[in-house]
Amino acid sequence: MRKNIVAGNWKMNKNLQEGVAFAKDLEAALAGKTLKCDVVIGTPFIHLASVASSTKLGVAAQNCANKVSGAYTGEVSAAMIASTGAKYVILGHSERRTYYGETDALLKEKVVLALANGLTPIFCIGETKDEREKNIHFDVVKRQTVDALFNLSAEDFSKIVIAYEPVWAIGTGLTATSAQAQEMHAFIRETIADKYGKEVANNTSILYGGSANGGNAKELFACPDIDGGLIGGASLEVEKFIPVIEGF
Ligand code: 13P
């Protein structure tokens, strides 16, 4: 059966000391609670080794290179990420697509390298406001999924976590309604089932992201096809992140 996952994405926030302190505080605050989900923190590269060695919680990078190694100044490889103890890597976030020009073709290469290094990709897909208004949101999400992931074998695809993050909901306070999110998650699962079969589709964790917080997590996570969240703003403070985790 698929896992429930609540993953924080700090984006470009917190210095090293703040990051390590957060991880320790979160772990301490969760100790003794019965959790119904896995908890992951997505940190900047510079924090990965220190955070991974100071907590048993899952740790994610927010990006990786599309090359194995070599003369790529400023890049960080999937193998380097794995060597820190981090187990996950967020790929295809809309901020990477929009601000750094990441395409489906580039992301396809990153996914292959992440898997080859034993990392679990948390692969982000989602439409813009304009695309939803033009009623092409299903086409966009399908294209992002097919073009970057459907080259994988069923065995490799089953290691992927999907995060549906409608771009219009990210950092805007405009959460998708649980009905909108559920509708898209069911569509994504159906798309996966068409390619890899029902068993793989039913075992794929599909997270929702976009202004999710302690106030709306319970309703979102109660939907049958929503298996957790990828959380930005509400993952930056322990007191705000815990109510999201407790949405399960
Ligand atoms: P917010 O939760 O701040 O809207 O960000 C969502 C997100 O982009 C997580 O990757």
Task: Walk me through the structure.
The chain is of the alpha/beta class and 248 residues long. The chain has a domain of 169 residues: Aldolase class I (TIM Barrel, Alpha-Beta Barrel). Helix content is 44%, strand content 15%. It is globular, with a radius of gyration of 17 Å. It starts with a strand and ends with a helix. The mean pLDDT is 98. The site of 1,3-dihydroxyacetonephosphate has 14 residues, from strand 8.
Q: Radius of gyration over alpha carbons?
A: 17 Å
User: The CATH topology of the domain at 1-6 and 8-12 and 18-28 and 36-44 and 60-66 and 73-127 and 145-210 and 227-236 is what?
Assistant: TIM Barrel
Task: Give unreliable regions as ranges.
Answer: none
- Which structural class do the helices and strands define? alpha/beta
Order of helices and strands: EHEHEHEHHEHHHEHHEHEH
Which small-molecule species are bound to the chains here? 1,3-dihydroxyacetonephosphate
Gap from first CA to last CA: 16 Å
Q: Output the CATH class name of the domain at 1-6 and 8-12 and 18-28 and 36-44 and 60-66 and 73-127 and 145-210 and 227-236.
A: Alpha Beta
What CATH architecture label of the domain at 1-6 and 8-12 and 18-28 and 36-44 and 60-66 and 73-127 and 145-210 and 227-236 applies?
Alpha-Beta Barrel
Shape: globular
- Main beta-sheet strand count, sense and barrel state: 8 strands, parallel, barrel
Determine the fraction of residues in helical runs and give it as a percent range: 40-55%
> CATH homologous superfamily of the domain at 1-6 and 8-12 and 18-28 and 36-44 and 60-66 and 73-127 and 145-210 and 227-236, by name?
Aldolase class I
Strands in their spatial order, largest beta sheet = 1-2-3-4-5-6-7-8
Percent strand equals 5-15%
